[in-house]
Design a protein that fits this description.
Length: about 350
């Protein structure tokens, strides 16, 4: 994948990941001190402000001709990508003199927006403070945050984009009980899902990332639906000619804080950047279609053989939801489905 072996990388990560941030709820106040402490070759600028006047930052690295834009937490309650970006910053700092990082900074210019929706992060919601889903605001651009991202896209004009999200625990890898720990998507540009040159190039990067992760967590990698969403950010950026790679960070066994998943997300980012550094032609895309689709067969909890008021045995499935109470993130179970759930899986089961 890069200059050091997978085992060495694993050992390095365990000792050197960005431990100043952890958990599901990552706020601007958690990352702002780290951002302000970054030293060259990092260049830190204020990109703008959110609807509630919280700072949104742009971090630039490198001076090469290949332009790459990466952003996270456009959904405020999806923080795994943010943690992975700061892990990546630590890696770049640590291996600044090594060939891979040196080549990365010479061949590429990278721009990071590590938290596009700080207001949503504060309230742990998908939407911004005005109830706008930034990932469905690419056309109208009603939100200040959407305007900032689009203006950055237009002025920076990236060749590749990494759009970092989290996905729900319901997703499994089709054909397996395993959760879809990481899922990838090369967005469509139209309802016909036309296989353009840009989509092929996007798929080629995903193929490289998948190869890396399959060595580490085989059969835990899925492919997110490429149904066309006319107002979605990834679909529109892809349509505009900016190859956009969606990474959806999901669940791993027992990892509801997504601390293991952040590591796999970091590995995906690192291998994707490595591929872009070492390749100028992106033709090996066919294996993208061999990545299994995401299924929707998993629940957080299933109560098996519950006897209802009609004396029937049924299964009852629950999912965790989250809310902020007294500035703390609280999880609770919500019933999702009941009946014969024998074809569904659960991360935790209890038999009556």
């Amino acid at each position: 994948m890069n200059d050091i072996s997978q085992k060495s990388l694993e050992n390095w990560y365990l000792e050197n990941y960005e431990n100043k941030i952890s958990g599901r709820r990552i706020l601007l106040e958690n990352i702002e001190p780290i951002i302000k402490s970054l030293q060259p070759p990092f260049v830190v600028e204020k990109l703008g402000a959110s609807e509630e006047h919280q700072n949104i930052y742009k971090i630039t690295l490198g001076e090469g001709p290949k332009k790459i834009l990466l952003w996270s937490q456009m959904h405020g309650n999806e923080s795994t990508g943010t943690k992975s970006l700061f892990d990546l910053f630590k890696y770049i700092e640590a291996f600044r003199s090594q060939p891979f990082v040196n080549d990365l900074l010479q061949k590429c210019t990278l721009v990071f927006v590590p938290m596009l929706n700080p207001d949503g992060a504060k309230y742990f919601t998908r939407v911004n403070t005005n109830g706008i889903d930034l990932n469905r605001d690419a056309v109208e651009r009603k939100a200040k945050e959407s305007l900032l991202l689009r203006n950055l896209l237009d002025t920076f004009d990236p060749h590749f984009c990494f759009n970092l999200h989290d996905q729900r625990t319901i997703f499994n890898v089709e054909g397996f009980k395993n959760p879809a720990t990481i899922s990838f998507l090369a967005p469509s540009i139209d309802e016909e899902r036309t296989l353009t040159l840009g989509r092929k190039e996007t798929m080629a990067v995903i193929v490289a990332m998948n190869k890396t992760l399959q060595k580490i967590i085989p059969n835990y990698i899925g492919r997110y639906t490429d149904e066309f969403y006319p107002t979605a950010t990834g679909d529109n950026f892809q349509k505009l000619g900016h190859n956009t790679i969606l990474i959806e960070a999901g669940h791993y066994h027992g990892d509801y804080e997504r601390e293991m998943v952040r590591k796999y997300n970091f590995y995906a980012l690192l291998s994707g950047l490595d591929y872009l550094v070492t390749h100028d032609v992106y033709e090996e895309y066919e294996d993208y279609f061999k990545i299994p689709n995401n299924g929707k067969q998993n629940f957080d909890f299933i109560l098996r053989d519950f006897v209802d008021d009609k004396n029937n045995k049924i299964d009852i499935a629950f999912q965790y939801d989250y809310k902020v109470v007294n500035n703390d993130l609280v999880s609770y179970l919500i019933e999702q489905q009941r009946g014969d759930l024998s074809t569904f899986n659960a991360y935790n089961e209890f038999k009556k």
